[in-house]
Design a protein that fits this description.
- By secondary structure, this protein is an alpha/beta fold.
- The chain has one domain: TIM Barrel (Alpha-Beta Barrel), CATH 3.20.20.70.
- Helix content is 38%, strand content 15%.
- It is built from twelve helices and ten strands.
- The protein has helices spanning 8-21, 42-47, 88-97, 125-136, 178-195, 209-219, 240-246, 266-278, 292-301, 313-324, 330-344, 354-364, and strands at residues 58-64, 72-74, 77-83, 102-107, 141-146, 199-202, 226-233, 282-286, 307-311, 348-351.
- Strands 1-4-5-6-7-8-9-10 form an eight-stranded parallel beta barrel, surrounded by nine helices.
- Helix 9 links the parallel strand 8 and strand 9 (307-311).
- It is globular.
- The termini are far apart.
- Bound molecules: zinc ion.
- Zinc ion binds at residues 147, 149, 157, 203-204.
Length: 370
């Protein structure tokens, strides 16, 4: 008996006092608990840091275009270029040397047409780029964007309900036709795999795109090529600079009949669930910073599936522009933003900041607690 000589009431009082004085049990606050104790020095801060950003987290987006001349800088994305095949080699070597494991390719074709035939041609610009990169740095993981908008003359992500009579009179004129588009996406994915891509990334938010691409890849003996699905892609205004970069703005209308409404998050879980069931190996949320809650929700719901987040062109341009004006410290804000995306639950971050961030992280790895 712990309290043989005292009454029950006294026993209770002693216990209560004991519990109240214990910082673990009592929910004690100041002055017992002082969180600043662990922020006292750079080494202490580093010891208890929960999220560690590294170059291995990054995927670097690259734009490739035909031509013999060098790189062309994109005006609304300072530091980001459209590369010709001949100018690529130095760039991909420097990406690999920085410890960035992967690139994702976007092509600007020589010619555009209603179907976008260069998208699945052996000598398409992306197919040429894949072969060139694999020759220069074989270990660099090459991911390819699989969509139609960069290749179609109308700039839309699929075949359209156009003509007289309309292919589907029950749908509005100009509507992106779902199932006929799937067939083209399958051809594109197979063509990228044939050129040597490691991962294909369907980005059009076309229903059934993952399952259909998986089937096409498997039928062509590419069962080992992974699919990174743009499972949750919002109809966002933050893509503006990308459309300059990829020369892919829609000639009319918008993408709201396939991309998601920015107001929705439950729908994101449904999209992710569908893509997982269709065989997606990895998922993605796009954009990143205005959608950290979505990243968190998708990661919590599907912790077994690697999750990417696309830190898009508009997010890049904002920090660049404010830094150029001296309104923000570029290095600190970029690293903070990327850390935030990882903390929210992203395993991988597709970001135009990848090269500079990798350089800064390498510089800081010697110094603790920055
Ligand atoms: Zn598209």
């Amino acid at each position: 008996m712990p309290f043989p000589d005292i009454s029950l009431r006294e026993k209770d009082a002693v216990l209560k006092e004991h519990l109240e004085s214990s910082p673990v049990n009592s929910g004690a606050t100041f002055p017992v608990v002082r969180p600043r104790r662990l922020r006292r020095s750079p080494v202490l801060r580093a010891m208890v840091r929960e999220t560690e950003l590294t170059a291995a987290d990054f995927i670097y987006p690259m734009f490739v275009r035909p031509g013999k001349d060098g790189a062309r800088e994109i005006p609304s994305m300072p530091g980001i270029y459209q590369w010709t095949i001949t100018a690529l080699s130095e760039e991909v070597e420097s990406i690999a040397n920085l410890g960035i494991p992967a690139v994702i390719l976007f092509g600007i074709p020589e010619h555009k047409d209603p179907v976008g035939v260069e998208n699945f041609s052996v000598d398409g610009i992306v197919q040429q780029a894949i072969r060139a990169i694999k020759k220069i740095v074989p270990e660099l993981v090459v991911i390819t964007d699989v969509c139609m908008c960069e290749y179609t003359d109308h700039g839309h992500c699929g075949l359209l309900n156009l003509g007289d009579p309309l292919p589907d009179p029950s749908l509005p004129e100009g509507y992106v036709l779902n199932d006929p588009t799937l067939e083209v996406l399958g051809k594109v994915a197979v063509s990228h795999a044939q050129a040597g891509a490691d991962i294909v990334a369907p980005s059009g938010m076309i229903d059934g795109m993952v399952g259909s691409i998986r089937k096409s890849l498997d039928q062509n003996k590419f069962e080992n090529i992974a699919i990174l699905s743009y499972a949750v892609k919002y109809a966002s205004a933050f893509y503006g600079p990308f459309r300059d970069a990829a020369e892919s703005p829609p000639k009319f209308g918008d993408r709201k009949s396939h991309q998601m409404d920015p107001a929705n998050v439950r729908e994101a879980l449904r999209e992710a669930e569908l893509d997982v069931s269709e065989g997606a190996d990895m998922l993605m949320v796009k954009p990143a910073l205005p959608y950290l809650d979505v990243i968190h929700r998708v990661h919590s719901q599907f912790p077994q599936i690697p999750l990417g987040a696309y830190n898009v062109s508009g997010e890049y341009a904002m920090l660049k522009a404010a830094s150029e004006r001296g309104w923000l410290d570029e290095r600190k804000t970029v690293l903070e933003a990327l850390t935030g995306i990882k903390r929210a639950g992203a395993d991988l971050i597709l970001t135009y900041h990848a090269k500079e961030a990798a350089r800064w992280l390498a510089e800081e790895s010697g110094k603790i607690g920055k």
